[in-house]
Structures are given as structure tokens and as C-alpha cells.
Design goal:
By secondary structure, this protein is of the alpha/beta class. The protein has 3 domains: 23-296, TIM Barrel (Alpha-Beta Barrel); 310-419, Cyclin A, domain 1, CATH 1.10.472; 474-503, no CATH class. The protein has helices at residues 28-36, 43-47, 50-53, 68-76, 80-90, 113-126, 144-153, 171-184, 200-214, 230-239, 261-270, 282-296, 310-313, 317-330, 336-349, 359-373, 382-388, 401-408, 426-433, 439-447, 450-462, 474-483; strands spanning 23-26, 60-65, 96-100, 128-134, 157-162, 188-193, 219-223, 244-247, 490-495, 498-503. Helix 8 links the parallel strand 5 and strand 6 (188-193). The chain is globular.
Length: 504
């Protein structure tokens, strides 16, 4: 917690003109571990503390979305729908939030309207109380199906725009996007800053402009801490009219993740705001997730040093750890700086797309290919061509003309709503891969290929038809701790009626 308070924060008397309440949306069990632990937090770790989190006064608990679905299915063999149900059994008061990418939902694929609509309905049925939706290119028409479905079933939805820096991404640009979100019918408008690019100076111009544009619609601010400026930006945003802020408990905060809840709540209260968060419970929450990090051998968050290069490559928190791992696997980890520099150039060529999934992944893939092959645009992935043709949405800026000609080969880019051009999928998947035990399984089969989801289904079948979350690896953790204590000669562990004694 070494971040200095902004000017005027320390000792500043509460202002009677300030808004009295700021909601705190907790991201620990979703974006926190996605950013710092490559999305590897397991059910046992989440379930071990959500009951306490339900009593802490958070406005919402963000639980699934982003890479959580993908990693849970592919690597953890944990059903993400089951995760929602298990947590909902323990969390009775605080709404659970799901994050999804418009027509792309949780993957990089563009899904048809029938899959998108069923996903939203099943999210609510399983226990989700709020949606957080965005389009990676800020093409609001691609959120139509999500918002209309949510409104039809009474599920509140926050419509977010992705913050980026470029000649295109002016305050006027974001005001226009926000007005479109309000016209679409969202319940809140949010500034999503996945790369931590927001500065206090930009906050002072952008937040008032948004506040005026959206009227009484709640305004949320979601900013990662890569530049080290996000904590101060959140306080500035609160002063200027933001309603809700996204934070994360300190062991999973800072760096690629979000500002720490403890620091933000403390300074909000010093500035005259109320958050409803029980500050007395925060140390225990921090201690719990610190223990999880120790058991799983995961890093703890720490403040990032200011890096001017961030404002050029703009890599988001949820992507950078995966990029580093991929370069290591390719044997070129030492060329990270070259790849980051190339990402900056590719982004300009492609019309300044915001660096958020899925388009950020395509920019990153191109940059890696350029570094590996020593030649720019020698190999062009199909996804980049699809981007240029408008099949993911409308690019925010002009694609470099020579590159555009090469990518489109004279075809006119598609300018419509991307979901409208994708044929229905549910009946096709039922016929070709079914029958399925539930609509949740049907949706997983729509998101992924059989070789991806079958191991999950098989693991569940072996458990008697219902997936049971694994318990924490306490034995291995205990053995590691004992190895550090050669002076111990006698150990006894008791769990209920089971008692184990060991001597040496």
C-alpha cells in the first residue's frame, strides 16, 4: 500500500457537495486471478471465502467471464456453470457478476444470436445477478442481442466501452459510444481500461463529459494498475461523479490487476464518501487469499513501476502473462521488448483497435510472427483478414491503405451487426453432438470442440454425474512446510474423527 494519496486527499475535510456513496465491485475471484495467476484460481479457493465476502458490503462480486470459462474447461476441468451454482449457494445477498464479450461471449469466435441469447438466460438461471458486456471494438450494435435478452428477463446489464489511446479515441468518441449504450437500454455505463492507460489528467476531462452525456445512468470505472496510476484515477473519478469502482483485495491487486480494495476504500472514506464495505473484514480476506497464493505457489501482487512503453503497446493485464508464457515456449522470451514494439506498429496499421480480447490477441500474434520471420506481414492469419473485412465489428480507425487492399482483396468490408450474418447453431450442435444432459452442456459444446469439453464431461461422469470441486492440496502444502522445519519430531493432524500421527 505504498501508493501516495493524491493531492488534497490526506486530511482533506469531507465536502458537502460530494456524492455520499460509491459502490465497490470486487474482482478478486475473476479479474484478479486472471491478471496475476493466468486465471488459475480453482473452485476450492473461491468457495473457501465467498460466504464471508457476501457479508462485506460489496456492491457486486465478479465471478466468471473473460478467460475464466476457457481456462476452467480446458485446464482446470471445472465446469464454469457449476462454479456459478456452487457460489450462489453460499452468496445470498450480493449479486454475482458475469463478464462477456458481446457476440463473442467467452471465446474469440463470433456466435449466432441463438447461442448468445441462451447464454444470457442460463447465466441468470444459474445465479448471475448482473451482466458486464462490451464489444472489443466499441461497436455498440454488436451488444444488441445481449442487452435485449437481458432486459427481457429482467437481468441488469452494465454496458462498457473499452478505453484506449489514439488519435481516434477522443473524449467526444467515448461520449458518443456512451450515448449509444444508453439508447440501447443498459442499466449502467462503464469505462473499461484493461491496459491501465487512464491518467488522472484524462480522468478529469473524460469523466465529467461522460457524466453529462449519460445523465442519471450509473457510471462505473474499471481500470487496471499497470501504469501505477489507476488508484489515483479511481479517486479522481469518484470526485467527478462516478458511481461504482472496481477493485481487488491486495494479494491479487496491483501490477496487471486492479487497485487494492483496502487502499481505495480507505481514501474514499477520507474524502467524505461511504462505500458500505466493512473495512474491518478486509485484513482477514487479504490473509485468506495470501494463504491460497502460498498453497498454490502463486505470486502476490505488487505495485508496478511507471513504464512509458505501456502507452505505446497498450497490452492489457489479462494478456501480458499469457504472452510472456508463449514467448518462453517458443524459446524467444528474451525478445519480449521486440514483440511489444512490433505490437505498437501493428496496432497503428490496423486502425488503432483497443488492445482487448479477441482483437488484441490477433495483433499480438502478428507481432510475434513478424519477430520470428524477420519480415512484416509475410504471414497473415485468417482472423486478421476477417477483422479488416469487418467480421468482428467496425474498426475504430482507418486501416493502412496498402495493407487494407492486401487483406480485403477488393471486397467491401461488412458494416452491419456481426451476429446477423452467423447462422443459428443450437439445433445443429444438438443434432451432431447431442443429446446433452442440460442446456449448460449444450452451450459448452457450442463454445468448444469435443476434444476440449469431453475430458470435463468425463471427469464429471466419473464423479457420479455431478462435478465435485477438489479440496485444497493441503497434504502437499503441509509436507512442504514440514520440510522447512527439520527440528520437528512429532506431528499430529486431526480432521473430524480422522487422526494422523507422524514421527521421525
Amino acid at each position: 500500500m505504498s501508493i501516495p494519496a493524491p493531492d488534497g486527499a490526506a486530511g482533506a475535510p469531507p465536502s458537502p457537495k460530494r456524492r455520499k456513496h460509491i459502490g465497490i465491485i470486487d474482482t478478486t475471484v475473476r479479474d484478479g486471478h486472471q491478471s496475476l495467476w493466468a486465471t488459475r484460481m480453482r473452485n476450492w479457493a473461491i468457495l473457501g471465502y465467498v460466504e464471508q465476502m457476501d457479508r462485506m458490503g460489496f456492491k457486486r462480486i465478479e465471478l466468471v467471464g473473460g478467460a475464466v470459462f476457457d481456462v476452467a474447461v480446458r485446464y482446470l476441468k471445472e465446469d464454469p456453470w457449476e462454479r456459478i451454482r456452487l457460489v450462489r449457494q453460499k452468496v445470498r445477498r450480493t449479486p454475482l457478476q458475469l463478464v462477456e464479450r458481446g457476440q463473442s461471449l467467452f471465446t474469440f469466435q463470433v456466435f449466432p444470436d441463438d447461442v448468445v441469447a441462451l447464454t444470457i438466460r442460463r447465466a441468470q438461471a444459474n445465479g448471475i445477478g448482473q451482466l458486464f458486456t462490451y464489444d472489443s471494438l466499441n461497436d455498440v450494435q454488436n451488444l444488441t442481442t445481449v442487452v435485449e435478452t437481458a432486459r427481457a428477463i429482467g437481468l441488469p446489464v452494465s454496458g462498457m466501452f473499452v478505453f484506449s489511446i489514439s488519435p481516434v479515441h477522443t473524449d467526444d468518441y467515448y461520449v458518443e459510444v456512451s450515448k449509444q449504450l444508453v439508447a440501447l437500454g443498459v442499466d449502467a455505463v462503464g469505462l473499461k481500461d484493461p491496459s491501465g492507460l487512464l491518467t488522472p489528467e484524462r480522468t478529469r476531462t473524460l469523466v465529467p463529459a461522460l457524466r453529462q452525456a449519460i445523465g442519471d445512468v450509473p457510471l462505473e470505472v474499471h481500470s487496471h494498475a499497470l501504469s501505477g496510476l489507476a488508484p489515483q484515477c479511481l479517486l479522481e473519478a469518484a470526485d467527478l461523479g462516478a458511481d461504482d469502482l472496481y477493485t481487488c483485495i491486495s494479494p491479487l491487486a496491483h501490477g496487471y490487476s486492479h487497485p487494492p480494495t483496502e487502499w481505495v476504500v480507505h481514501h474514499l472514506e477520507r474524502r467524505g464518501f461511504e462505500t458500505g464495505v466493512d473495512r474491518a473484514m478486509l485484513p482477514d480476506m487479504a490473509a485468506y487469499f495470501t494463504r491460497v497464493a502460498e498453497i498454490e505457489r502463486r505470486p502476490l501482487g505488487k505495485p508496478a513501476e511507471y513504464d512509458p512503453a505501456l502507452f505505446e503497446h497498450q497490452i492489457p493485464g489479462g494478456m501480458i502473462t499469457n504472452l510472456i508464457n508463449q514467448l518462453r515456449e517458443l524459446g524467444i522470451a528474451e525478445r519480449l521488448d521486440d514483440v511489444l514494439a512490433e505490437i505498437s506498429r501493428v496496432r497503428v496499421d490496423l486502425g488503432y483497435p483497443p488492445m482487448v480480447s479477441p482483437v488484441s490477441q490477433y495483433v499480438g500474434t502478428l507481432a510475434v510472427l513478424h519477430v520470428l520471420q524477420g519480415e512484416r506481414y509475410k504471414t497473415i492469419p485468417l482472423e486478421v483478414t476477417s477483422y479488416a473485412l469487418g467480421l468482428y465489428g467496425r474498426p475504430p480507425g482507418r486501416i493502412e491503405p496498402n495493407l487494407l487492399d492486401r487483406l480485403t482483396r477488393g471486397k467491401e468490408p461488412y458494416g452491419g451487426r456481426i451476429g446477423a450474418r452467423v447462422p443459428p447453431l443450437l439445433d445443429k450442435v444438438r443434432a451432431e453432438r447431442g443429446p446433452f444432459a442440460s442446456d449448460d452442456d449444450l452451450l459448452i459444446a457450442c463454445y468448444y470442440a469435443p476434444e476440449v469439453y469431453n475430458p470435463l464431461f468425463e471427469a464429471r461422469a466419473q464423479a457420479g454425474g455431478r462435478y465435485e470441486p477438489p479440496q485444497p492440496p493441503l497434504v502437499s502444502h503441509l509436507l512442504r512446510e514440514l520440510a522447512k522445519r527439520p527440528d520437528l519430531r512429532h506431528v499430529q493432524v486431526q480432521l473430524g474423527k480422522l487422526k494422523v500421527t507422524a514421527s521421525r
